[in-house]
Design a protein that fits this description.
Largest sheet: 4 strands, antiparallel
Structural class: alpha+beta
Number of helices: 4
Number of strands: 8
CATH architecture: Sandwich
Radius of gyration: 18 Å
Distance between the termini: 66 Å
Mean pLDDT: 87
CATH superfamily: Jelly Rolls
Low-confidence stretches: none
Length: about 160
């Protein structure tokens, strides 16, 4: 199997691409690559320019933010078939709002964000599938954040009542 066929095969395993027309896989393969990353490597750092979107095929990636006075805090762990760096294909965000560090050795699909945006603009049916998935990712991450905030506030109110 050639590297391009291997990449197309990997893209076809991603559930949210399974409804795409076959010709879109060639286009996605043209802007993507398969990368293997060892545990403990940074994919990107908070404040970096938005350049790539990632889909975890194997492994696990920690999403962390820097909190003044507290240091780096993990806010999410991406598992296989989850997306990272999704905000890079939105029209407003221009820099990373978090860092991503591999927890386990990973196999990832890496897509050039600007080229994915262009493909979505040129092919509205592809754009619909991609943006619908990104909306689902954003909604699920907001839900996770809401639960984390509820947990933080419930613990801080417990501490305050002991004063």
């Amino acid at each position: 199997m050639t590297p391009e066929q291997e990449l197309i095969s990997a893209l076809q395993t991603i559930p949210w691409f399974q409804d795409l027309n076959p010709e879109y896989f060639d286009k996605l393969a043209g802007i993507s690559s398969l990368i293997e990353v060892e545990a403990g490597e940074k994919l990107y750092q908070q404040g970096d320019k938005q350049d790539y979107i990632y889909v975890v095929l194997k492994g696990r990636v920690a999403v962390e933010i820097a909190i003044p006075g507290k240091g780096r805090t993990r806010i999410y762990t991406a598992e296989p078939i989850e997306m990272l760096g999704w905000s890079s294909v939105t029209p407003v965000v221009r820099q990373r709002t978090a860092s991503a560090v591999t927890v386990l050795p990973c196999l990832l699909v890496r897509m050039k964000a600007s080229k994915l945006q262009k493909l979505c603009d040129q092919n509205h049916s592809l754009g619909y599938v991609v943006m619908r998935r990104i909306a689902n990712v954003a909604a699920s991450r907001l839900l996770v954040t809401r639960f984390q905030l509820l947990d933080i506030f419930s613990h801080s109110s417990d501490e305050g009542s002991n004063v």
